[in-house]
Write a structure and sequence with these properties.
The protein is globular. The chain has nine helices and eight strands. A hairpin with a 2-residue loop joins strand 4 and strand 5. With 231 residues, the chain is of the alpha/beta class.
Amino acid sequence: MQTIAVAIDGPSGAGKSTLARAVAQEFGFLYVDTGALYRTVGLFVRRCGADPDDAAAVEALLPRARVSLAYRDGEQRAILDGEDVSAAIRTPEASRYASKVSAHSAVRAFLLETQRRLAREQSVVMDGRDIGTVVLPDAQVKIFLHASAEDRARRRMLELDGRGTPQPYEEVLADIRERDARDESRAAAPLRRAPDAVDLDTTGNTLEQSKKLLIETVKERMGACGIESHE
C-alpha cells in the first residue's frame, strides 16, 4: 500500500500545527507534530539543568532521553520518560529551549529516524522547519507556510492568553523575530523553503481562510502527482 507524505514547513507561529491537524483530518492521515519532539528534548535538557546552547553537553544527555509520541483519543501526546508532558512543552520557556536544542545536529539526528519511521508506516501530515528539505525530501506534497512576524505575534499572543500565560505583544514579537533569526541561520538544517514546495502566505487570513487555502492546495498537489484523495 502506497503511503503519502504531506510536509508542511514554516517559521514559528505560522499556524502549522493547527492547520496540519485539519489537513490530516480531511484526508484521514496521521498528524505528526515534529515540533513536539524537539520541545520534549528541550524540556528534558532543562530538567537536567544543562545549558541548551552547549552542544556537547546536550549531546551527552541524549542517550538518557526517552522521547516518544503517543496517540490517545485521536490526539497526539508528547511523552518524556513515560510522563505525558504535552502541556509542559507549550510554555514560552519550552519554546526557547526547543529552538536552542534544535540547532544541534546531534539532536536532529537523534529524532530523524523516529520521524521517518512514522512516514514509512502510514500516510502522514508532518510539520516542522526542515520536513521537506531534510526529514522527508521525497514527500509527494510540500508546503511552505508563513505569515508576517507581526501577524504571527498577534496570533501567538492570543494563544498565550487562552492558556492563561499572557505576554505583552512587544515581547512576543521580539521572541518571534529572535527565533526566526536562529532558525534561519543555524548550521544544522536551517529553516528554508524546499525548491518544490508551494509557498503559502497566510498574513491577514482568518483560521478558516487559511484552512480552506491549505486543504485546496494539498488536493491540487496530490492531483498533480496522480494521487487520488479519499476524503
